[in-house]
Amino acid sequence: MNRESVDEALAGLGAAHDRIAAAMFTIDSHPGLALLRSGGLGGATRTRWEALGPEIDRLWAHFAVLGDLLERARAIRNQRRPDDTDWATLHLIVSEPVVGLDNAGMPTEAGTATAATRLRLGELTGQLEQRCATAAGQLTEVDRAWTVVAGRYAPLTQEIDALVAQAGSVGLDEIAEPLAVALAEAGRTDLSDPLGAAPAGRLGPDAERRLDELTTRAGSLRERVGALIGVRDRYPRRVAELRALVEQAAAAEDRRASAYARAGQKIADPGLPPATATAPVLRARLADLDRLYHEAGWVSLADAATDLEQAATRARERADELGELAEGLVARRDELRGRLEAYRAKAAGLGYAEHDELTVVHGRARELLYTAPCDLRAATRAVFAYQQAVAALPRVMAKGKDLDD
């Protein structure tokens, strides 16, 4: 090689060295490399690091050899008067296979005859640039996968941590702690292996399922915690509402008792369902809520308040239903009285006001209806009999002639 060729080769090697130096800096400062070096890896990510770690070590070793040889060549070329031996050395460095590599791909000592492979500096720089780009791409893939996985876990972890703390304040530790454990287990699986959790930078189905399950459980816990906090913070208003509801049930039972007493006086054998006064029990349960509140038993308080609300509502509705049933019996008697008189008026209008047979039937029905207690079944049959008797008689005109129906 002449001097111009040597200078041109050195310039090309120098430019390649600068590009490789920039690439090596990119690799060394890459967030993906920091993640891989942090340890605790598993799955595909661990496999990636087991291959990439030694490769990065080789890149640095090869880059160091390139730098040493380039520095040596530049030192020789920068001498004032390089002799023939110097030019021969320069020719050797820039054009001959002076870089020896062992079976593991690591550089061997200069002059070692046991090198498995030998490369020219031009070949070394070409390989280094390509391998640096490949390594950087693999690191970017790791970082992209980590960003996707961490981006999903970070807000969920923050939310669950806050929920666990809130749950502890309202006595839901037994529900919150398993959720925290499940989050830690899922995080160990996915965050230790981002390449497995988010291949190609997109969350995989298994990781998505784990996150969805955690999100669902967190949502259930959030509702439960919110309900208990509401029970705690809204207790004065809540207990006032329940007290009003219990008193409504008590008032309904009082009305039912009055209706039962009236029906028992006026209707013989009314056949009403048995009725129990629940108001004293409800009031006792209402008083128990205060004890739970002062003991900060929020879970028990919430359940007890819900149970009391349901029980008081059922008691009120049942009392109203039975009261209406009892009042209906008396109303039925009164309705039969009105119907009997209406049929009598109809008979009179047809000219049968003094009809002996109708008078007997009417008297029997009236006696049943106006005797206390009233035999409602017999009275119903008697009124029907009077109705049938009226219907069976022919209608008469004012001159005494029959009026054909």
Overview of the structural elements:
The chain is mostly helical. It has four domains: 3-141; 148-233, no CATH class; 235-330, no CATH class; 333-403, no CATH class. The protein has 13 helices and four strands. It has helices at residues 3-28, 31-37, 43-77, 84-95, 121-169, 173-191, 194-197, 205-233, 235-266, 279-294, 298-349, 356-369, 376-392; strands at 99-101, 117-119, 395-396, 402-403. The strands form two sheets. The protein has a two-stranded antiparallel ribbon with strand order 1-2. Helix 2 packs across helix 5 (121-169). The termini are far apart. Mean pLDDT is 90; it is low at 397-405.
Task: Provide a brief overview of the structure.
With 405 residues, the protein is an all-alpha fold. It folds into four domains: 3-141; 148-233, no CATH class; 235-330, no CATH class; 333-403, no CATH class. The protein has helices spanning 3-28, 31-37, 43-77, 84-95, 121-169, 173-191, 194-197, 205-233, 235-266, 279-294, 298-349, 356-369, 376-392; strands spanning 99-101, 117-119, 395-396, 402-403.
What is the count of distinct domains?
Answer: 4
The succession of helices and strands, N to C, reads HHHHEEHHHHHHHHHEE
- DSSP, total strands: 4
Rg result: 50 Å
Adjacency order of strands in the biggest sheet? 1-2
Low-confidence stretches: 397-405
Shape: rod-shaped
